[in-house]
Write a structure and sequence with these properties.
Length: about 170
Amino acid sequence: MKFVHASSLAPILIALGARATLKSPRGERTVAVADLFRTPAAEGERETVLAPDELLLHLDVPAATPHSATVEIRHRRGLDWPQAAAACALSIENGKVTDAALVLGHVAPTPWTVATAGLVGRSVEEAAAAAGEAAAQGATPLPSNGHKVELAKVAARRAVLAAARQSF
C-alpha cells in the first residue's frame, strides 16, 4: 500500500506545535497534531489515531511563531494537488536561526517532520540550503516518483526563505 498524505493544513499545524482535542463517549483526550497521523499497517486500517467513535473537537495552535510559511509546488495552477509542500516555523535572532521546525507534505503517508538541528546557528540563507538537504534525508522514492525528492528539497528551501521574510 503506497500513498501520500493529502493534507495541506497538517504540515503547518505540526510545525507550529498544534494540539488536537478528541472527544468520544469515554471522554476527551489531547494529542499533538504530529502524533495524530500514522501509516496504516494493513489495508482498511485508519490513517489517524482516532478511534471509530472519536471526533476532533478542536485544535489549539500556540501563539504564532514570528516567522512561518507554507510553500506548495504544483504541476500547474488551479485545483491540482501539490506534488510537494513544506511548512516552516523559525525563530531568528541577530540574523541567525535559533529554532526551526520543518514539515513536508504530499511526499509520504504521513506529514514528514524534517530534522532541523543543522539549521540552528546559521544565517537564513545557510539554513535554507541545509533545509533542502535535510528534506532529502531518508527519502525512499518509488520508481515513478523520484522527482518528488528534488521537489521536496526545493519546497523546504523556499519555505525557510519565505518564513524568514514573515514577521508578525
